[in-house]
Amino acid sequence: MSAPAVWQRQPAVEPAAAGARRVPGPVVMALREFRFWLVNYRRTWKGTIYSSVLNPVLYLGAMGLGLGKLVDQHGQLGRLGGVSYLVFLAPGLLAAAAMETAMGESTYPVLGSVKWLKTYYAAAAAPLRPRDIFHGHLMFTTMRLIMNCAIFLVVMSAFGAVKSAWVLAALPVAVLTGLAFAAPIEAFAITRDKDSSFAALFRFGMIPMFLFSGTFFPVSQLPAWIRPLAYVTPLWHGVALCRSLSLGTADLAGSLVHVGYLLALAAIGIAVGQRTYRRRLYV
């Protein structure tokens, strides 16, 4: 008689029965890319905090208090809505600071990740998809916008440039203003092989908007033929809404128009960015 079997062969388990490995959702995958940027930011956050505090202090001190004293002395309060130049200027600078932060985080960091450091390609070689990489970087840009805009609001309050508690609502508005720049610019930056186009973007895009979108003076003081150009810029919508909230003069209809315009630009940028990231990283 043959010896009894001491073991039995286990039946083959089908992959479905064993449980296929679940692919994480898009939010989880984007958070992984966001964590990468956070780890990288641990080495540079101190320097950015200093600049985030110094920029509003210097701008509000030099322009709001220094230049503002001359403006107030020359009887310009009527043109500024009956408030001091400091109070008029501060919320406009808040929106402009969001624009500057967004453009800084959406140009060279993107080009560096795809050309010099190639961290985008390393991430694309992992399970991360191009849209996850794009969304994760956009999450980090949003975090930087929240940090910088919150610091700016604190400095505004310290300078006495706040007239209404509605100024707290200017924080998400400023962040949305930054995203209206960040998403389209990241979608554009991923297509670049050289940084020469960034210089043109800053010189012919950011600086004119910074000067002529209502940050330093009402757009109504511009020549009539150029005002429509100011009205279509995302910065003007951000400045107008941040200012009306800071002064407590915001109305529902106007606020919805500004928010809708900024949301539309951010949504278009995200939609285009998903396509441009896919074209560049799927090689």
Question: Can you offer a commentary on this structure?
Answer:
With 283 residues, this protein is mostly helical. It has one domain (25-281). The protein is built from twelve helices and no strands. It has helices at 15-18, 26-41, 45-73, 85-106, 108-116, 119-125, 130-158, 170-189, 196-212, 227-231, 234-247, 252-281. The longest helix has 30 residues, at 252-281. The relative contact order is 0.14.
- Secondary-structure-derived class: mainly alpha
Helix content: over 70%
Largest pleated sheet: none
Fraction in beta strands: under 5%
N→C terminal distance: 65 Å
Uncertain spans: 1-20
Instruction: State the order of secondary-structure elements, H for helix, E for strand.
Output: HHHHHHHHHHHH
> How large is the count of helical segments?
12
Mean pLDDT: 89
User: How many distinct beta strands?
Assistant: 0
* Gross geometry: elongated
Count of folded domains: 1
Gyration radius, rounded: 25 Å
Lay out the secondary structure.
Elements (H helix, E strand, L loop, with lengths): L14 H4 L7 H16 L3 H29 L11 H22 L1 H9 L2 H7 L4 H29 L11 H20 L6 H17 L14 H5 L2 H14 L4 H30 L2
Helix pairs in contact: 2-7, 3-4, 3-7, 4-7, 4-8, 4-11, 7-8, 7-12, 8-11, 8-12, 11-12
